[in-house]
Design goal:
Blueprint: H1 2-7, H2 10-18, H3 20-48, H4 57-69, E1 74-77, E2 81-87, E3 95-101, H5 128-144, E4 152-158, H6 167-173, E5 184-195, E6 199-201, E7 204-207, E8 211-218, E9 222-223, H7 233-251, E10 258-267, E11 273-274, E12 277-286, H8 289-307, E13 313-319, E14 325-327, H9 329-343, E15 348-350, H10 361-364, E16 369-377, H11 398-412
Helix pairs in contact: 3-5, 3-11, 5-11, 7-8, 9-11
Length: about 425
């Protein structure tokens, strides 16, 4: 058979082996356009029925129902997570994972829309309804084109992105990256500052780790007119806030992005009493895991140094949150190139580094990962609100782009 192929003219061989990808691309584009209205309705349903982290029972059932309808096998992980498998030709050649998150936020929606949240005080204000919709759309497209691409695609619908310990960590503990093990994973996020129809990528450092700091200072309180008979917790706490700011400014490399913010100072209840207790809370955001845990030790040492010798008692707890999101440079370059092929290089931009956090970082610690942004802004339509606000919404033309790219990455990434 090989001898027969070698007899063909070079031009014919070239034609036979280069038309496959463009044909698949055009089919994915066509199906995404055809199915966009259907999946806009899917998004409307999800948006109207938000559920909090680790409580996504009905959302999970909805996803399961769609996969069942399309005859895509799946299994349940981490209680409400759903993992589907689509096998193309030669399924052992590669395994690509595509991830979306299911949970909403405790925010009261203020949008006046037909698909407004039906649950008081709950809202899909971070676009997870969009992420889930796009992955469902990609699943349908990939299932219908599975005879035209090689490998296996693993569909990961995870719970609890918005709340520690992070649904990604629970899914990983439940074996989501095994049997089969993906060689790469992609995740998307809506970008309210990027125009609809555009995508953005960034290699290397993308999003920060996030740790929560809780400090309690206890001491003998007393009358404000007799501070010499007390250990002034307000003063001690104030000194500690100032001292903590020097950890970043005097211990961290200026080229290593870091934020340490004390965001709450609770203590006292009247004008003439020095309280016996104050509580501080804050957050540490880092882009380097080694420095992150060194900073933990510096926070503890600084707090002990300030409080010791004052007669006060210190209780400090750092709740370790999500790791930083680091995009594999080679995978990011490949994804960016594929995005350019799909929607045109002029519509693909470099995304900015962010000190916000995402539990996608757990996946990125274990396998090559790429976390990218999908533009949802439309200034002409007044769609400009940021995520985590009660007026967040998207231009739903983004759904066609989002589902097409996820399908294209699943089929073509290596």
């Amino acid at each position: 058979m090989i001898l027969h192929i070698l007899k063909y003219p070079t031009s014919i061989i070239h034609s036979r082996f280069t038309t496959f990808a463009p044909m698949l691309k055009e089919k994915i584009q066509s199906l995404a356009k055809q199915y966009a209205p259907e999946f806009i309705e899917v998004r409307h349903y999800l948006h109207a029925h938000p559920e909090l982290s680790y409580q996504e029972f009905e959302t999970s059932k909805y996803v399961q129902g769609k996969l069942t309808e399309w005859k895509i096998p799946f299994e349940i992980k981490a209680t409400t997570g759903v993992v589907g498998i689509i096998k193309g030709k030669n399924p052992g050649k590669k395994v690509i994972a595509l991830r979306a998150d299911l949970d909403a936020l405790p925010i009261k929606e203020e949008n006046n829309i037909s698909y407004k949240s039906t649950k008081e005080g709950l809202m899909h204000a971070c676009g997870h309804d969009v992420h889930t919709t796009c992955l469902l759309g990609a699943a349908k497209i990939l299932s219908e084109t599975k005879d035209e691409w090689e490998g296996t695609v693993k569909l990961i619908f995870q719970p609890g992105e918005e709340k520690n310990p992070g649904g990604a960590s629970l899914m990983i503990k439940d074996g989501v990256l095994e049997n089969p093990k993906p060689q790469a994973i992609f995740g998307m996020h809506v970008h309210p500052g990027l125009a609809v129809g555009k995508l953005s990528f960034r290699g290397g450092m993308v999003m920060a780790s996030a740790d929560e700091i809780y400090i309690t200072i206890k001491a003998k309180g007393g009358h404000a007119a007799s501070p010499h008979l007390t250990a002034d917790t307000i003063l001690i706490g104030s000194q500690l806030v100032m001292a903590l700011q020097q950890i970043v400014s005097r211990n961290n490399n200026p080229f290593n992005p870091t934020v340490l913010s004390i965001t709450s100072f609770q203590g006292g209840y009247t004008t003439n009493v020095i309280p016996s207790e104050v509580k501080l809370m804050g957050t540490l955001r880092c882009m380097n895991e080694e420095w992150r845990f060194k900073a933990h030790q510096l926070i503890k040492q600084t707090a002990e140094n300030v409080v010791n010798g004052t007669g006060a008692e210190l209780n400090l707890h750092i709740d370790i949150g999500y790791p930083c999101v680091y995009n594999n440079e080679q995978l990011n370059d490949k994804a960016k190139a594929l995005a350019g092929e799909l929607i045109g290089a002029d519509n693909v931009e470099e995304t900015e580094m962010r000190m916000g956090a995402e539990d996608f970082g757990y996946y990125a610690q274990l396998i090559p990962a790429c976390f990218y942004r999908v533009g949802v802004m439309n200034k002409a339509k007044g769609i400009t609100s940021g995520v985590h606000t009660p007026t967040f919404n998207i231009d739903e033309d983004a759904i066609e782009t989002g589902m097409a790219l996820m399908a294209w990455l699943g089929a073509k990434a290596e």
